[in-house]
Write a structure and sequence with these properties.
This protein has about 150 residues and is α+β, with helices and mostly antiparallel strands. The chain has two helices and eight strands. A hairpin with a 5-residue loop joins strand 4 and strand 5 (about 90-95).
Length: about 150
């Protein structure tokens, strides 16, 4: 019979393997063709729509929601979040450079209100999509890191 302390290592390893398999299954690969298959249908494109767009993946976590977008060009990435009805700017998300094109924001939806998310790369507007209002959640396992400036 294993003691409680002896159970920790096998459970930790199993958890890490499960998370890694979810990541692999969730994204498959980060090639343009594979990622482009996940392009969100309802979005507005301004420029470089082939290289910057919102994406939709199956959600593997029942207790969280996600916002995904893809950037295949270099430069500073920002997302401006506007109130849908008034178009007032609510916040600006500034993203750190990352080695994969898929950006992941873990969030908690507030479906009673809508927001418009507008992606900027190099200070230029690329695309926009409407979402239920949301609050970001800390989830350090994903590579996407950002700072938030509230307005």
């Amino acid at each position: 019979m294993m003691k409680p302390r002896e159970n920790i290592l096998p459970l930790t390893v199993a958890g890490m393997l499960l998370f890694a398999s979810c990541q692999t299954t969730l994204f498959g690969s980060f090639t343009y063709d594979d990622v482009n298959e996940q392009r969100a249908i309802e979005q507005t494109n301004f420029e470089d729509s082939a290289k910057v767009f919102f994406a939709t993946y199956p959600n593997p976590y029942p207790d969280k929601e996600f916002l995904w977008f893809v950037v295949f060009i270099d430069g500073p990435v920002e997302m401006h979040v506007h109130d849908f009805e008034s178009d007032a700017l609510q916040s600006i998300y500034r993203f750190e450079k990352q080695d994969i094109p898929v950006h992941t924001i873990t969030l908690h939806e507030k479906p009673e209100h809508l927001v418009k998310c507008v992606l900027f790369v190099n200070g230029r507007m690329k695309c926009a999509k409407v979402y239920p209002d949301w609050q970001p959640l800390e989830y350090p396992q994903f590579k996407t890191k950002f700072a938030i400036e509230d307005r």
